[in-house]
Each structure stands twice: as structure tokens, then as C-alpha cells.
Amino acid sequence: MNTNLAAQINSFLAAMILLTAFGMLVQRRMYGLIHLFAWQGLFLSVSTAVVGFVAGAHHLYISSILTLSLKVILLPYILHVLIQRLKIHKEVETIVNVPMTMLIGIALVVFSYHLTAPVRELSTLITRSTLAVALATVMLGLLMMITRKHAVTQIIGFLAMENGLFFAATSATYGMPLVVELGVALDILIAAFIFGIFFFQIHTTFDSLDIDQMARLKEED
Amino acid sequence: MPLLILLSVPLFAAIVLAFIGDRKYAPEINILGSAATFAAGISLALEVYVEGPMLAGGKFFFVDAFNVYLAVLTSFVSMTTAIFSRRYMRKERQDGHVGPIRMRFYHAMFQLFIFAMLLCLLTNNVGVLWIAMELATLSTVLLVSLYRTPSAIEAAWKYFILCGVGIALALFGTVLLYFAAEKVLGAGGEALLWTNLSQVSGKLEPTVLSLAFVFLMVGYGTKVGLVPVHNWLPDAHSEGPTPISAVLSGLLLNVALYALVRCKVLVDGSTGTHHAGDIMMGFGLLSIIVAAFSLLRQKDIKRMFAYSSIEHMGIATFAFGLGGPIATFGALLHMLVHSLTKSAIFFTVGHASQMHWTQEMDRIKGLIKGNPLVGWGLMFGVMAIVGMPPFGVFTSEFLILTATMKDAPLLTPFLLLGFGVAFAALFRRVQPMVTGPVPSYQRPLKAAHIPVMLHMALVLVIGIYMPDFLNRWFHTAVELLK
Amino acid sequence: MMFYPFLIEVLQILIILAVAPVFAGWVKMLKCWSQGRTSPGLFQPYRDIVKLFSKDVVLAENASWIFRGTPYLVFGVVVLSGGIVPMLSVDLPLAATADVIALVALFAIARFFTALAGMDIGTAFGGMGSSREMTIASLAEPAMLMAIFTVSLASKSTSLSQMVQVVYSGQAVLRPSLAFALLAFILIALAETGRIPVDNPATHLELTMIHEAMILEYSGRHLALIEWAGMMKLFLFVMLGIAVFSPWGIAASGDLAAIPRAFLFMILKLGAVGAGLVLIETGLAKMRLFRLTEFLGSAFLLATLGMLSYFILE
Amino acid sequence: MTAIASLLGVAAGGWAVGKGITNQIILPLGLPDLLFHLRLDPLSGFFLVVIGLLAFFVSIYSLGYVKGFLVHRSITSLVIFYCLFLAGMFMVVLADDALFFLISWEVMAAASYFLVMFEDEKIENRRAAFLYMIVAHVGAIAILLSFGVLAGLTTGFQGFSGYTFDAMRATSFPLGWATAAFLLAFFGFAAKAGVIPLHVWLPEAHPVAPSNISALMSGVMLKTAIYGIIRVAFDLIKVFPWWWGSIVLIFGLVSAVMGVLYALMQHDLKRLLAYHSVENIGIILIGIGLSMIFTSFHMPLLAALALTAGLFHTMNHAMFKGLLFMGAGAVLQATHERNMEEMGGLIHKMPWTAAFFLVGCISISALPPFNGFISEWLTFQAFLLSPSLPSPLLNLLIPMGAALLALTGALAAACFVKAFGVTFLGHWRGHHNPNVHEAGWPMRIGMMLSALTCLGLGVLPTLFIEWMDVISEQLVGAKIATSATGLGWMWLTPIAHERASYSGPIVFVGILAVVLIAYILLHSRPAAIHRVPIWDCGFEKINQRMQYNATSFAMPIRRIFGFLFSIKEQVRFVSLFGHKAFPKKLHYHLRIRDLFWGWLYKPVVDVSFWISRKVGRLQQGRIQVYLIYSFVTIIILLVFLG
């Protein structure tokens, strides 16, 4: 596989990641979201492996496998189980003003591109152009957290952000040092357990996972 | 060697505590672990004091004047907090707020949290720094929701999500930092070591670094509790158990600020401008003012002191942003004395609310007569925190204010406004609580004397007589942060 | 000549003790004439005082030592002031004891104690008198100081003998500032000595009394001392005005022979001032208490005008 | 104990002023790079004497006074904070670097705060203490900033040596910065001194504090602020334009007049005294302001005169105000009452206290032969000399100030006729007759000593002025000539013999002599004194409710100066037959408030709470909104940097 091809594959995968990010932004159904998230993880994992192969950075394979096992298999599975356990699978969520959200998302992509343009000039890596996509994914994850009202979707948004970060790490730099990668993965694992516990706590206390109920700690009278 | 002990003791203690569970002597083990940590911290400090900055564990750890003093502080406050929590948590158990499982969880997580913070301070690797920071968040999230009340869960959720997002942004910043460093230092672990980065900071790409700083600033700033990304802080501090509020306020914020300052040094070194400092000053100033005005309308005692923490972190951030020897000196001192004072305040606040069965300030009255230690402790604590001499906070605020007057005189009115309002707001609330006759519903309580008195005495001593070694430490740290 | 100044001093104190009642009698006499009444004679005040001295004292039950001591104190203060204002000669040893400001303060202490004595008994009248007296005094004081200020601008001094000397030596003739100051001084003196239109010394009508209300409870020798001191105070104010604004005829330093001449001049001037006083008192009606603000305000205005005209015109 | 320590302070201060020397000590405390510097020079020595002397008297007094508390509460905290308070004041005047100065300053403030709050079960005490603390702290911050400005301009700012006063003395400051520093310092010190409009805490805090503390707070704590102003202006900055002096002068005048007017309206004895502190601080500031004006026009002699007047008044005010508060404390302890409307006739039951209080009243009313007169007279002399200034505008305006000062003096006299008359004279006005007794011996001795000092300073001012001349010599470079002739101690002649003179001894001895002569002459013939009931004008028996009281006494003045207060007057009729002509009962209600509450403080408080409400909206409860904050913040920063 020559470098050029790899770059093309990588760009394609980047586009797919971006697409799934947008998909998650507007997806109303819970299962659909989880599937989209798993797809995004898969693209990420493949992309990591490709980069690792091209750059000869073998620790990226470990990264890739970690991503695959965590984000494509483990986390979606946990979410699945939780949703069934907590009987929320039928819930369809309302999102504030979908077209508006889309527009903001597009603006964010443009903005990310503009922002990373000077950085792109500096880099010699084949993956350099994907940095904008990574940033956009992070921002879209954040946007998703803002527009959603459900605890599970917020968590998915959060994880999507993490995906964007991983992508940034691989695309911009051919991956962080292994210690860091492992640590980050560990953290995400712990976080996953914690939000699992949280779902139960919230559910038993509030009878649903709608976070609009959790707005009582405030300063307004 | 002390370094290894310093790190391993809390980790080990966490494991032990997780296994032995809620035994009668668990609090004592907790104290013992913290005390051992503190002893290790002291010996490490001595070593550094004698031999100067050092690397350890294959460049993985790095100790210099800046972080060693914070490490000692962290281990010290964690020790006193452990002492405090023995009596406090026993009372909570008697009142039926927490059960045995949660007690086990509490003790283990407490130690884990200390470990995370120490790792955060001592590591040389910017990436590991990030991981430890995230670990510190995660270990406290469930402590905040320990009481399982709706508001506690809500607070913990917000803490989890907001800090999670914040820290994610910080990771993005770290990636960008690595991106820039890799060009100069080559790929691999070397490029994330702070010791290497600080040496080559002039060669790092300025555009990338300033971009990175934005993310780091917002990310770690969330943890520091800077306005406008502070919103998790009052909730988490007011709903968690009081010992946790004390360490969150007294230590975690410091650690986050430490990370931020390290990054700022790199960025300013690279860009050659003062942009990072300016941004920090802006955040600091905004925090001071917003927190000061928010203080005015608080009804919940712990929430009020949470806002006070925001204000003080704002002050320290502002001073670091300002730069210059005197302001930096003041900021370092401020971190130290704020953490001592604020945790002492939280100790007394915890007892006070136990005495009255509530955190509502309107219901808390007559503390001095009811329990002189709690009453006077709170009174003097507040006097110290609002910057009354002869306590140490005054000294640091004095240095910061005068330095501001020198370097950015136009900003002093805002600082002044913030200080004045915060002062009035705190006093307005605290005075009725400590004075006056004892209300009928107050119950007597055996308070934890040692931590409160120890902290206040230290703050007092620092205010009147700063030992020479501390002074030299600060000066070395100031040199480092230039 | 060592004794010369002391001689003057003694002489002057004797004069003030002796002449003050006569002057009061003179004013009363003129007043009677002007109102078409028969006058009791020039020396009636003497007879009053002597009669009061020989009477027993009737004291209210709860009068304290303040009430009893005040007459002596007032008397003492006024006599001492009498030794300070130059009447016959500029060369007065005690004149250096107090300058004009201190002199005003001496009068103030007399007033202070009189007001306290008025409150001592605990009647409504006493308190009313004290309250009004102190109010008037506080309004008069700034005007008084302004007048002094104006005069001292001309003489570069507040020391009385120095002021007299400067005016006497003709360095200050027909100055507008002095004229204004004189007008102001007259208004203030009327207020300070309790004459119409500020106060009416002859009335005992409850709504109008001021000074009389304070001393209503006095009797016997206490009343005699107070009355006497009151006459001396009037006399002193007249002398002060004469000394500062028209000292002509006063004996120069060390000139013993000029003393009789100076005495003569003094008597003449006193006669004239008495006539003027009566003219004012018969011509004007007593003012309402709250109109006094305007009265004393105009005194202040005049004094200030005097000062301004000094700076602007001279 | 404290008495002895105070005496030591007096001795040290007296020695320093007497010898005119300067000592410097550096304590091994504080920041290692900024040790605590102490310095004893004539100026601080003078204030040391003032503080020490009054503290000595008050300490003796306290021995008796605190016994009143022993019955129902522990006095440990009172004693501890009392000592801290004294120590704080001593340290303030000795401090020689900015940090130590501020530490002492705030120790003093904090200690007095706790002292004010000593009887903390009363809500008014807490309120007063709170207000006091706020104002004091805001003032302290201003002072801090002022030092910040000064230190910033010294050469040694990079290290810490710039914070010492020595470094500031050695620097000559550019005008703009010096002005900022001065104004800040003046603001800060004025807040402490109770200069209008920063005075509101004072009439709240002084009345509720234990009386020995009120005596110290009013008598000497306010003086530390005066010390601060003198130190900053004359010693640290040194060169300044004339309008600085005018500012001080104007604030002094306003405080003097407004202070005394407000005092007149009070019927709480200690509150009245507190307002008088505002007035007297005003008078002191007049002296200092004039001195500054003269200094800036390079007229050292006149500057020395005005400065001496101000300092002398500082001493005097400490003595007589301490005395008055001690007297008020004795009354309070005896009657458990601060409201004058409920007092009267105490002179019969407390003859000693009455006599001492009277001495205080005469002194503060600036009447000879007591000390208050001397300083006011000196101030007048300084005023009268102002026409020699080379500025026509000042020439025209300053005399008006003299007139205002005269008004102040006269109103003060009126006020103390009221205070003494209503409290000690007449009949008891209260509803029930309490068991009133004379104050104990320690209290009497304390009061007697300060009364004697008042008299001594009034009769022999020249000795005192000669002793303190060295201060003005150091600060403005000239002495005032007091001892021109051999009998110099008798005559006080500030500038020249021809100019003006006053002789305390002669006035004192003269009055005494005439009074004695008159008394002896009149008593050579025995005359009976009949004691009879008060003449009731032929009506029914008059009762004690018919007396003039504090409110009615001040009525004429209230009418005249009514526009300066916010007055609510209410008369309510309860009438027979439903017609006004047949009143059965009259309710008279009068409420006088400090004008500045409505003008200055309430708006500030309201605005603060308004902002606070707005700021509170930030924390609005929904996590999405918080996320938006992060989002927007990062976008803005990226735009800003990218």
C-alpha cells in the first residue's frame, strides 16, 4: 500500500467519521445512536490501524485494538444492556430544532477548517488534513451534548468527543506515546463504569433519565 | 525513594481500605495512610531542598520547588482531612446518612483521590498529568453523590459531565502540544516530558501552542473553577460530604491550577508574547467579580464557601497571569494559604451544619457560645480568607494587589470591587452564625480540634513569620515560572 | 512708670464695675423718655443691685452646685474680660492675656454656664431659655468671627491693643471693609447682649423670653451678680465696638496725662451709643425666633462683604 | 498590666519627642525579604504618648467598669481583645514598612471589631460591628493600594525593599501617581477616622461598644488615621500641590459642621459623643489641611502653626473625648440607660462623675481655660494668617472656613449644654426610678486623671507645645516661637507678640481670683438660703415630664438646619369628641436619619444586590446551558487567538 493510497483511505475514513458525527447529532432514536457510535468507533479503529501501518508506528496497532474492543464492542454493549435494564429503549428524544443544529454543525466544520489551516501548513504528515475533521468531531460532540436532554445521549455525545480526540491524536501526530494512550483508555473504562452507576442512581432517584429534572441547584429564585 | 513511597502509600492504602471495608478501625487506617504520605512528602521535600530539582523513575517523575511544595501541602491537608473525617463521618453514620458500603467506598476513594493528585503533581509527562487529572475527577464523582439525595446526584452528574468535557478539551490541547513538540523533540515519550519541553519552549511553533493553550485553558480552567466554566463547583462542593468539599476546594483546584500554570509557562515561552497571561488575567478577574457578587445571595453555607473558592482561585490565576516576581510569589503563597484556610473553614462548617442539622445559614446561630472551637474557628477562618491580617492570606493579597497596582493599575478597581463585595458578603453571613445566643435546636458535638487549630495556626504563622525555607522555595519557584 | 500699666488696669476694672450700671441706667432713662414715661433715674440699677444683695436667697429644692456657682463664675469671667478690652489706654498689661477670639470665648463660657443653670432646676422655662440662647449664639458666632477676621485683615492682628493702635494711628480711615464690619458687629452685639430685636430684657412673657427665662429662678445675691454681670457685658460690648472701630481719644502708651481726657471721650461716646441703642430698640419690634436666622444671616453677609471688599477694593 | 505597658509607651514616646531622635529596629518577623521594620521618631512618639496616656487612664477606669459585666458574662474575650487592640495601635504608629503597617492596622481593626461585638446577643451590636468592619476593611484596601502605588515607584520594587517607608522617603514621586496614592490613602484613612461621608459606622459602633472601648476607639483609634494622613502626606510624599490641602480642608470642614449638627439631633448619649468625634476629627483635619496648603506654598512657619494646632487638637480630643465616654460609661452603668430622654438630675447622685463630665463638656466646647480652646484658637490663628497666601482664590475662600469652624464651636457648646443639662441636671425623666449610685473608685480615678490632663493642657499649653515643636520642625521645617520672653511659659504667642496672644494661666487664675473674691465678699455677711419647691407659675404642681428634653432643646436648630437631615415628623392626635380642639392625647414621633444613608450607602447596597441577582442567573441550573458556556468560551478564545 503506498502512501498516497493510505492518505486517500484515511481521508475517506475521516469523512465517514464526520458523517457519523452528524448522524448522531440528528438521530432521535436511542438504538440508532448507539449503532452510529459503534460505526464511528470502527472507522476510528481502522483509521488508526492504517496510520500505524503507513507510519510504521506499531504501538498504533495496540491503540487500534483498544479502540475496537472498547468503543466498538464494550461500550455499545454496556449501553445496550443499560437501556434494556432501565427500559428506556422505546424513548424517542426531542431535539431542539434540527435544521438549526445542522447549520451550526456545518458552521463548526468550516470554523475548524479555518482554525487548523495554519497548522496544516506546518505538518508534513500524510494525515495532516484530517486534523480539521478531528476538531470538528470534538465540537460536534459538544454540540450534541448541548442539544440533548437525555442522560444516555449526553454520555454518547461525550464519548463521541473522545473519539474526535483519539482521531486527532492519530491523525495529527501518528499517535501519542503508548503510556498516554493506555492511560486514556483506562480512564474511559472507569468513566464507563461510573456512568453506568450513575444511570442507575439517576433512574432510581428521578424515575427517568431525563436530565431536565436535574436543574434544581441554581441561583435564580 | 521517598517519591516512590509518597505515591505508593495512598494507592496501597486505597486497596487496603477497599478490602477491609467498614471496620471500626478503618478511619484510623485512613489517618495512618495519610500520615505516612505526609511523612514521605516531607522527606521528599527535604531531599529536594538539599539537592535541588531532580528527575526520577527514568525521567517519568520530576520534582522541583514548584510541585514539591504543592505535594507537601496536598499530603498535609489530606492528613488533617482524614483526622477530621474520623469524627465527622462517625457522626454522619450515627445520623444514618451513610451505610457501611458507602463508608468503604468513601475511604478507598479518598486515598485514590490523594494518589491521583500526587501523581498529577509529580509526573513529568504532560500526558500522564492529564490522565491523573481525569482520575482525580473520576474518583471524586461518586464521592460527591455519596448521600444519594436527588440534589447530590444532580451535583455529581454535573460535576462528571462538565469536568469530563473540560478535561476532554484539555486532552485536545495536550495533543496539539505534542504535535508541536514532536517536531522539535521527535516522536515518542520524550516529547511529552515537561523537562524537555521547557528547555525548548522557544523553538515550539507559536500558532500551534496558542491554539493548544485555548483548549488547555478552558479544560483545566474548568477544573480550577474559573468563570464562566465554573458551574459544577458550587454544586459539587455543597452536596458532597464535607471532608470531600475540603479537599476539593483546598487541593484539587490547586492541582488544576498547577497544570494550567505549567502550560502557561510553555506557551508564553514559545510565543514570546503575554497572551496566555492576558487570558489568565481575564479569567481570573471575571471569576473574582462574578464569585464575589454571587456570594451575596447565598443561603447554603457550603455553597457560599464554594463561591469563595472560585474567587480565590480567580485571584491566584490572575496573579499568575500578571507574572512578575512579586505577583508570582504572591500567587504561590496564595495557593498555599488559601488551601489551608479554606479546608479549615470547611472543617468548622461541617461541624456547624451537623450541630444544626442543616446547611441553611439562617438556621445556624450562636456557634461561639455553643461550641467555641467551631465558632471561633469559623470566625477566624473567615477573617483569614477575606484577607485580614495577620493571617497569611493578607500577605499574599497584599503582594498581589500592590503588584497589580504597579503593572496593571487600571484593573485594580475591579479587584478592589471584588474584594470589597466578597468581604461584605461573607461577613454579612458569618457574623450572625457565630454570634448570638444558642438556639434551642442546636446539639452539642465533639468537634475535631486538631485539624482546625493546626491549619489556623499555620496560616497565622505564615502571616507573621514566614520561615526562610518556604521563602527560598517560593523564590526558586518564581525563577522557574519566569 | 513701672506701676503705670497696673494702675490703668485697676482703674479700668473699677470703671467697668462702676460705670456699667450707670450705662444701663442711662439706656433705660433714654428709653423712658422716648416712650413718654418718667424715668427712675440714672442710678436705679445701683439701687436694684444693692437691694438684691441684701435679700435672702430662695433656692429651688433640686438646685445643684452648678446653679449656685454660675453667678459667681459669670461675674468673674465678665470682670476678667473687663480687664482685657482697652478703654482708656492702649497700654493695657492684661490685653495680651486674650485676643478678640479668646474674648469671645470668655463670653461663651459665661453663656455656657448660664444655660446650664437654666436647665438645672428642671422647669420648662429654663430649658426653653437655654435652648434658644444657645441657638442664637451658634448663629451669631460665625458672623462674629467674620467681623473679627475683616478687622484683623486691616490691623494684621487679633490682639486688641494692637488693633486699637492700628486704627488709632490713622492707618485705617474710612475703609469700606471696616464699615461693613461695624454694621455686622452692631447686629451681633444686639444678639449677644440680648437686646431688641433679638431678645427683650424687659419682658417676662413666656413666649418671648430668652435670657430672662434662663435666670428666672435666681434670687437674692445670685440674681444681683447675674444682673450686674449682664450690665457689664453690655457695657463691654459697647466698649469693644468703640475700641475697635473708633478708638479716637484713647490714651497712647505711657501717656498718663491723657487718661482724664480719654475718660471724657469715653463717657461721650457711651452716651451716644446709648442713644443709638435706644433708637434701635424703640424703632424695632422683637423678632420671631425663626426670623433670627435672617437677622444673623445678614450680619454674616455684611461681615463677609467687608472681607471681600478688603480683598477687592483695598 | 495594660496600664503599665501604656505608661511604657508614654515614656518611650515622650523620650523620642523630647530628644527629637529617630530609632529604627528591624524585627526578624514577616516575610524574610521584608522583615518588620519599626521606627520611633518624634511624630510616632507623639502619637505614642497620646495613645499611651489615654490607654493608661482608660485601663485604670476599666478595672472598675468591667465589674459591671462580671455579673452576667465572662470577660475573658474582652480582656484579650483589649490588649490586642492596644498592641495594634502601638504597632501602627511604630510601623515603618507598608506590610507591617497594614498588619497592625487590621489587627487593631479586628480587635476593635470584636470589642464592639462584645455584647453580641444584641442585634444592634452585631449590625454596628458589621458595618464597622466593612467600612474599615474597604478603607484598609484603599490604604493598601496607596502603598502599592508608592512602593511601585520606588526603586526597589523588583525585590521587596520598595515596601519600606525608607525607600518611599527616598523617592520623589511624579505628580500623577503621588496624587493617586494620596487620594487613596486619604480615602482609606478617612474611612477609619469617620470623615463625612464615610462616617456612618462611627455613630453605630461607638454607642454599642463597652464604654471603656468607646473611649479608646473614639479617643485614640481615630487618631491613628490622622497619624496615617500626616505620615503619608508630610513624610512619605513630602512635595504636593496646594489643592491636596484644600481637599483635606474641605472634608474637615464638612465633617466638623455636619458632625456637630447630627450630634445635636441625638438623644442617645454615646451616639451624641460619637458624632462629636466626627466633628473633632474634622477640626483636626482643618489644621492639617491648612498646614498642607501652607507647606505647598513654602511657608514653613505657618505650616508649623497649623500642624501644631491639628496635633494639639489630636491630643486634646483624645483626652476629653476619652473622659466624656468614660463619664457616659459611668452613667450607663449606673442607670442602664443610654437614652438621655430618660435621664436627669444625676448630678445629685453622681457628683464626681458629673464634675468630670462637665470638665469634658467645657473642654470639647472649646471654652477657656480648658484645653479644647487652645487648639481651636490655634486653628483660628492659622486661618487668620491665610491672607498671606499668594493665591487670591484661597484668600477669599479660606475665611469662610473659619466662619464654619466658629459655627461648629458654637454648636458644640449648644450640644454639650444639652448633653450635660439633660443628663445631669433637672429632674429624673424616666418612668421608673432606678437605683443609681456613684461610680467606683477606679473609674473615678481614671476620669479624674484625664480631667486633670485637660486642665493642665489648657492652663499651660506652652510647655506642651514647646515639647512637641520638634515634630513640626522635622516635617515642615519650622518651629513656632512660643517662648519669646523670659516668662514664655505664660504667654502663648504663635507667631509674634503683636499678632495674637493668649495666656492660659492668667485666664485661669484671673477667673478663679475674681470668683473667690466675690464669694468671700458676699459670704462675709451671713444670709439664709431657703430651699423651696420650684415656682410653678401658680398652676398645678409641675411634673418632670414638663421639662425640656433633648429633642425639644435641639428643636430650634433642627428647624434652622432642617435641610441637612432627613426628618420625619409626625403628630398624631387622639382627641375627645372627634375634634382637634379637644385633644386627649398627643403622640409625637420624630425620626431623624443620617442623610448619607439615603444618598450614598443604600444605593450602593441596592446596586450590589441587583448585580448579584443578575450574576446569579449565570448559575441557572441546566447542564446544557453550562455546556454552552464552555462552548462559547472556547469559540471566543479561538477567534481571539486564531
What's the short story on this structure?
Chain B has 482 residues and is mostly helical. Helices cover 78% and strands 1% of the residues of chain B.
Secondary-structure map:
The complex is a heterotetramer of chains A (about 220), B (about 475), C (about 325) and D (about 650).
Chain A: H1 3-26, H2 30-55, H3 59-85, H4 98-122, H5 131-147, H6 151-173, H7 178-206
Helix pairs in contact in A: 1-2, 1-5, 2-3, 2-6, 3-7, 4-5, 5-6
Chain B: H1 2-20, H2 26-51, E1 54-56, E2 61-63, H3 65-94, H4 100-122, H5 126-144, H6 150-185, H7 194-199, H8 206-224, H9 232-239, H10 242-271, H11 275-295, H12 301-322, H13 325-356, H14 367-370, H15 372-385, H16 392-407, H17 412-434, H18 449-464, H19 468-480
Antiparallel strand pairs in B: 1-2
Helix pairs in contact in B: 1-2, 1-4, 2-3, 3-4, 3-10, 3-13, 3-18, 4-5, 4-10, 5-6, 5-10, 6-8, 6-9, 8-10, 9-10, 9-12, 10-12, 10-13, 11-12, 11-17, 12-13, 12-17, 13-15, 13-16, 13-18, 13-19, 15-17, 15-18, 16-18
Chain C: H1 4-34, H2 44-54, E1 57-60, H3 65-82, H4 100-120, H5 124-155, H6 160-168, H7 176-192, H8 211-214, H9 220-245, H10 258-283, H11 292-313
Helix pairs in contact in C: 1-9, 1-10, 2-9, 3-4, 3-9, 4-5, 5-6, 5-7, 5-11, 7-9, 7-11
Major sheet details of chain B: 2 strands, antiparallel
Secondary structure: number of strands of chain B = 2
Number of helices of chain A: 7
Distance linking N and C termini of chain A? 64 Å
Which pair of chains forms the biggest interface, and how many residues does each contribute?
Answer: C-D, 81 and 85 residues
- The amount of helix of chain A comes to over 70%
Query: What's the number of structural domains of chain A?
Result: 1
Q: What would your notes on this structure say?
A:
- The complex is a heterotetramer of chains A (221), B (482), C (314) and D (642).
- Chain A is mainly alpha-helical.
- Chain A contains seven helices and no strands.
- Chain A has one domain (3-213).
- Chain A is 77% helix and 0% strand.
- In chain A, α1 (3-26) runs antiparallel to α2 (30-55) and α5 (131-147) packs antiparallel against α6 (151-173).
- The N and C termini of chain A lie far apart (64 Å).
- Chain B is mostly helical and 482 residues long.
- Chain B has a domain at 274-482.
- Chain B is 78% helix and 1% strand.
- Chain B has helices at 2-20, 26-51, 65-94, 100-122, 126-144, 150-185, 194-199, 206-224, 232-239, 242-271, 275-295, 301-322, 325-356, 367-370, 372-385, 392-407, 412-434, 449-464, 468-480; strands at 54-56, 61-63.
- In chain B, strands 1-2 form a two-stranded antiparallel sheet.
- In chain B, a hairpin with a 4-residue loop joins β1 (54-56) and β2.
- The two termini of chain B are 29 Å apart.
- In chain C, α3 packs antiparallel against α4 (100-120).
- Among the domains of chain D are: 241-523 and 548-555, no CATH class; 561-593, no CATH class; 598-641.
- Chain D contains 24 helices and five strands.
- In chain D, the strands form two sheets. Chain D has a two-stranded antiparallel ribbon with strand order 1-2. A two-stranded antiparallel sheet of chain D has the order 4-5.
- Chains in contact: A-B, A-D, B-D, C-D.
- β1 of chain C pairs parallel with β3 of chain D, so a sheet runs across the interface.
